[in-house]
């Protein structure tokens, strides 16, 4: 049986690859549809930003998108990655846009290319290269000649590049759309295009929300996003795009912010690691199928929308030949029944039923038929592997980063300077150093007052870390200091954590210690302003200059002297990659804040900052009612991000180097590796559920419960829970309800063991 299925799958795959060669398309539109080669279409799209994964991951991500029912992949183009230095372009590796477009084409999907050049996207500086800001007279995103000239040059470069590779649909390529008049938001059913000759497009349907350091992780229930999608097509929508379908990872220093996490998981249908997130992926797949069953009717006419009762909305797309209906209950609390064309339909609160052919309900957005599973991390040390993974990280070595000025690029001024215009955002790190003599102030209750534009400040007084403080736009801190007679040193390390990516004039936002800096409460009672004293500045760290992130340079000191909880320390170790093919993460528990590199490639900034919202978290969230990003939160009381993705393709089987720069202090020997896999499957079915969408046409009647292992090499090893009645909870936390029939677990176990017997 399994063999036969494989043959069928292979066949389909060949067919889809074959299909791309006949792509060459004439793409136009009218008020109702996108018209591709004369065929009127409604399309479903999902965002995958190519630099947030690796070229090795792209084919799998795009295949899973296709399997999930998408027609189209959408991406921004990230100017600051492609032109890090003015006139010097980069289109290699994760920035290989042409390869990404060709991968989309090879899977037989369309591509929407949003060239920007402004992208927002929680991306550093909204995608603008920082050098753009240093062009005299420039103002971003407005009618400004220097800006328009640069924007035109970059946009032309990208368009020409795509043309040269024949990637536009008119040339036989996958790109069907570039910049468009559209709607972004959690819901877009009320949106109207700026011309009545244009179709209704939704470019950013936020499938979840981004994570930030120190805040709980938002998630969006599958029932609610399914509701939003169905509502959009119910009210005349033509194309919607999930933002994100795969969020991925903000590698290196690419996060915007400040304080956007390195993980850009977004609670998307594909998780940060590319694993299918259930039930979201499967439920949306069913929604897509249901909409596609209506496609002919959707493109044939505008909907007739009526409201037969409060909170009930019925949309019918009907011509002589075709019909499709959407029945919505937009009420937040009450279920409802609707009479439609002689039949009665039951609608849960906040749900839409889809009726291709206007007769049978194939899907209700609040009823999930798709199976669920739990993908979880296993630390190798908890496995019965030969040798724990802790043993596979060996030979920790270290180098201390000097406190204060240590590089020849230092310079002095009798004032404080803004950080970004000085560093050009080439590094997160910028030193402000001052030395000051006192005759006798040693017994005084002296306070050092510092004002900074952010984002993180480490203040060292006489070589000792006196305070770490974090803030967006404003850090205002009083640090009690003990001065000594004679020379005192004040070394302030200012650290950026991702540049602002949105808001009016966001490009003007500065960082660093712009003052005032004062000493209050000296022995003679006076306050002195240090802002206009002689400060010495240094761009970047000594370790960056020495290329320590590469691991093989510098005088690394031995394990026997390894310091713990020491600020400003570089650590390095060798490790053997976790075996197998499951995605890999590093658990940085034990460390505090810094950046990490694997084999010289930055896996991003890490920060174990704890989630401070202790009240607002919930495991299960009521999907009913309008969603917004604080509505459903998880991760309270835990570090906002402990696990950091290391792409498989960056690893060798053995002899890998991990380097990290720790700002505040930690214990690197606690660091472990973990792999992510799907360990548990859940499925539920209700007698009132319509049959699965894919069974609908094949004549199967009644509800069907199915379980399928996500990977070909997996088998079901045990059944943990089974209930027939009114069970409660979510996958992993089920419990029996008030009504529950006896012996279900043993019946299911028996079925499973006979199945295993049959197939073995
Ligand atoms: C493309 O399609 C439109 C409308 O369907 C048609 O008017 C136009 O002539 C076509 N263009 C080409 C190059 O075939
Ligand atoms: C500062 O830079 C100068 C050269 O510009 C160098 O001679 C000096 O040693 C540097 N200072 C420190 C503390 O490294
Ligand atoms: C107080 O002491 C500081 C530091 O010793 C000195 O700079 C300042 O001039 C003194 N102020 C007065 C009013 O004596
Ligand atoms: C690694 O070393 C190369 C060559 O020395 C250098 O160009 C590169 O910038 C280094 N990478 C990092 C992350 O320091
Ligand atoms: C491990 O890799 C480092 C740097 O990539 C190299 O210098 C070293 O020779 C390698 N060691 C082994 C045993 O292969
Ligand atoms: C990704 C994105 O564009 N997010 C924006 C969505 O809209 C909200 C509110 O309208 C903004 O706060 C986000 O920045």
Automatic annotation (TrEMBL):
Signal peptide boundaries: 1-19
SUEL-type lectin domain: residues covered: 699-750
Keyword Hydrolase: yes
Keyword Signal: yes
Coiled-coil intervals, chain numbering: none
Enzyme class: hydrolase
EC number of this enzyme: 3.2.1.23
Protein name listed in UniProt: beta-galactosidase
């Amino acid at each position: 049986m399994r063999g036969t299925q494989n043959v069928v799958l292979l066949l389909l795959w060949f067919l889809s690859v074959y299909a791309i060669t006949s792509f060459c398309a004439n793409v136009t539109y009218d008020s109702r549809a996108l018209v591709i080669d004369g065929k009127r279409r409604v399309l479903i799209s999902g965002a995958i930003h190519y630099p947030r994964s690796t070229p090795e991951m792209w084919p799998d991500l795009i295949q899973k998108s296709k399997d999930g029912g998408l027609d189209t992949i959408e991406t921004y183009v990230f100017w600051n990655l492609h032109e890090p230095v003015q006139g010097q372009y980069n289109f290699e590796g994760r920035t290989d846009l042409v390869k990404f477009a060709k991968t989309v084409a090879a899977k037989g999907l369309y591509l929407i290319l949003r060239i920007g050049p402004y992208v927002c996207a929680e991306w550093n500086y909204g995608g603008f290269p920082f050098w753009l800001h240093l062009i005299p007279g420039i103002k971003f995103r407005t009618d400004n000649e220097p800006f328009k000239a640069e924007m035109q040059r970059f946009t032309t470069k990208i368009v020409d590049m795509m043309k040269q590779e024949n990637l536009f649909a008119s040339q036989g390529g996958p790109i069907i759309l570039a910049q468009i008049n559209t709607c972004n938001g959690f819901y877009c059913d009320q949106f109207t295009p700026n011309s009545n000759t244009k179709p209704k497009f939704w470019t950013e349907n936020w499938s979840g929300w981004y994570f930030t350091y120190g805040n709980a992780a938002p998630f969006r229930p599958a029932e609610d996003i399914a509701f939003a999608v169905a509502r959009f097509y119910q009210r005349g929508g033509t194309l919607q795009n999930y933002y994100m379908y795969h969020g991925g990872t903000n590698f290196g220093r690419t996060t915007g912010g400040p304080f956007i996490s390195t993980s850009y998981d977004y609670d998307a249908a594909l998780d940060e690691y590319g694993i299918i997130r259930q039930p979201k992926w499967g439920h949306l797949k069913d929604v897509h199928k249901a909409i596609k069953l209506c496609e002919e009717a959707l493109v044939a006419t505008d909907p007739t929308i009526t409201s037969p009762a409060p909170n009930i909305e019925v949309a019918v797309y009907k011509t002589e030949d075709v019909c499709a209906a959407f029945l919505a209950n937009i009420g937040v609390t009450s279920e409802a029944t609707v009479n439609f064309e002689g039949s009665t339909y039951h609608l849960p609160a906040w749900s839409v039923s889809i009726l291709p052919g206007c007769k049978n309900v194939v899907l209700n957005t609040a009823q999930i038929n798709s199976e669920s599973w739990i993908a979880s991390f296993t630390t190798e040390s908890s496995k019965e592997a030969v040798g724990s993974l802790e043993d596979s990280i060996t030979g920790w070595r270290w180098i201390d980063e000097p406190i204060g000025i240590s590089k020849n690029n230092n310079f002095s001024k009798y004032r404080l300077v803004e950080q970004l215009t000085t560093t050009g955002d080439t590094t997160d790190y910028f030193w402000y150093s001052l030395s000051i003599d006192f005759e006798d102030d040693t017994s005084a209750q002296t306070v050092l007052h510092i004002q900074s534009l952010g984002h993180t400040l480490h203040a060292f007084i006489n070589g000792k870390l006196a305070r770490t403080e974090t803030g967006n736009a404003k850090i205002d801190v009083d640090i009690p200091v003990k001065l000594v007679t004679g020379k005192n040193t004040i070394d302030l390390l200012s650290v950026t954590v991702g540049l602002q990516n949105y808001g009016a004039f966001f490009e003007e936002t500065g960082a660093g210690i712009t003052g005032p800096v004062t000493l209050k409460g000296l022995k003679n009672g006076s306050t002195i302003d240090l802002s206009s004293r002689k400060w010495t500045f240094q761009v970047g760290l000594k370790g960056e200059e020495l290329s320590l992130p590469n691991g093989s340079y510098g005088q690394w000191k031995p394990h026997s002297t390894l310091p713990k909880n020491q600020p400003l320390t570089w650590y390095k170790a060798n490790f053997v990659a976790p075996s197998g093919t499951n995605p890999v993460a590093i658990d940085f528990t034990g460390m505090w804040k810094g950046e990490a590199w694997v084999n010289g490639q930055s896996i991003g900034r890490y920060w174990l900052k704890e989630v401070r919202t202790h009240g607002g978290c919930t495991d299960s969230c009521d999907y009913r009612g309008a969603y917004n990003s604080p509505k459903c939160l998880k991760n309270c009381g835990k570090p906002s991000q402990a696990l950091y993705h290391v792409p498989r393709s960056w690893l060798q089987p053995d002899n890998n180097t991990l380097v990290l720069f720790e700002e505040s202090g930690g214990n690197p020997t606690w660091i472990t590796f973990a792999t992510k896999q799907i360990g548990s499957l859940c499925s539920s079915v209700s007698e009132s559920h319509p049959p699965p969408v894919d069974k609908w046409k094949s004549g199967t009647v009644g509800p069907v419960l199915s379980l399928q292992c996500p990977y070909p090499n997996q088998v079901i090893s045990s059944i943990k829970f089974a209930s027939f009645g009114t069970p409660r909870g979510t996958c992993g936390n089920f419990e029996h309800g008030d009504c529950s029939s006896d012996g279900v677990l043993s019946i299911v176990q028996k079925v499973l063991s006979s199945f295993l017997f049959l197939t073995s």
